[in-house]
Amino acid sequence: MKSVLFSRFFILLPWILIVIIMLDVDTRRPALPLTPRPYFSPYAVSRGGARVPLRRGSPGRDAAKRNESRPRPHPEPPLPTIYAITPTYSRPVQKAELTRLANTFRQVAQLHWILVEDAVARSELVSRFLARAGLPNTHLHVPTPRRYKRPGLPRATEQRNAGLAWLRQRHQHQRAQPGVLFFADDDNTYSLELFQEMRTTRKVSVWPVGLVGGRRYERPLVENGKVVGWYTGWRADRPFAIDMAGFAVSLQVILSNPKAVFKRRGSQPGMQESDFLKQITTVEELEPKASNCTKVLVWHTRTEKVNLANEPKYLLDTVKIEV
Ligand code: UGA
Ligand code: MN
What we know:
- By secondary structure, this protein is α/β, with parallel strands linked by helices.
- It has a domain at 81-206 and 244-289: Spore Coat Polysaccharide Biosynthesis Protein SpsA, Chain A (Alpha-Beta Complex).
- Helix content is 29%, strand content 20%.
- It contains 9 helices and 14 strands.
- The protein has helices spanning 2-27, 60-66, 94-105, 124-131, 157-170, 192-199, 251-256, 272-280, 290-293; strands at 43-45, 51-53, 81-88, 111-117, 137-141, 179-183, 189-190, 204-206, 209-212, 215-223, 226-231, 247-250, 287-288, 298-299.
- The protein has a 7-stranded mixed beta sheet with strand order 5-4-3-6-12-8-13, with helices on both faces. A 3-stranded antiparallel beta sheet has the order 9-10-11, with no helix packed on it. The chain has a two-stranded antiparallel sheet with strand order 1-2.
- Strand 1 and strand 2 (51-53) form a beta hairpin.
- The radius of gyration is 25 Å and the shape is globular.
- Bound molecules: uridine-5'-diphosphate-glucuronic acid and manganese (II) ion.
């Protein structure tokens, strides 16, 4: 009797083990992504004091999956994608700048990073960097012609245009999903609130920029919810006296103005923003953000040129390290 029980037990044992393993595999959570998700609170306090999520998706994503079968009372409208076009060029601080930027962008839901290298080819440094950045991205490149690489001339014209061309090409056949574009230079500093503000852009939105134009800040002047002028220390006569970091444009506006680009010819120094905005909007149409343009949520920071005076010419380090 005992031996019969034993033999049954040993016949069943492997099957029991298989079932246990399968159940375990099924319920195991997916592996963590390479880049961990927000380490800070994913909530921001809204004006009324309520906590509103900064990003949709994780950590709430798993919970949403589990509830998939339950009917939702009000399906949420799709979150407009934020397309950030960043021109970038090779220099000692490039990887540091891109690291700061990626660390910010990783906290933002539904952001697509369009990184455009000012170079004849995609560099290995940037390619490797993007592969590990944990962000949806598009990696483009276009070199600035040598004749335009001079002090006093506008920077990154060709790179921003390459980003615009990519966006238009990508959306040429399908009806545009909701989206917002902004130009994110690689050395500026962006608060997370800025992305909440720009996400609701209907056509073209504007906001103050800190540490720019020889002032603590510049801002659009707003009366009764409309932009009526510019607080700026430099050429207030510009139709749009605003830095590249001070506006966002809806994807729809970019697509319905297919010829709007940054211009080299006929563009005076410091007029790039104004020349571009003139092609797609009017001052009356602008949508003021950041509490009627009274809050600074982005800073035109500039990184000091790094001192490499003591780099060795011979007796180099025994290993080659990417910096
Ligand atoms: C100011 C504005 O904030 C920029 O948006 C504008 O492009 C620039 O002036 C201009 O003169 O055209 P600033 O801090 O002086 O900014 O310019 P940078 O930060 O040096 O360059 C703007 C962007 O272009 C950066 O993302 C930078 O990486 C990129 N860049 C700069 C290139 O791609 N190639 C270059 O040769 C220089
Ligand atoms: Mn800059």
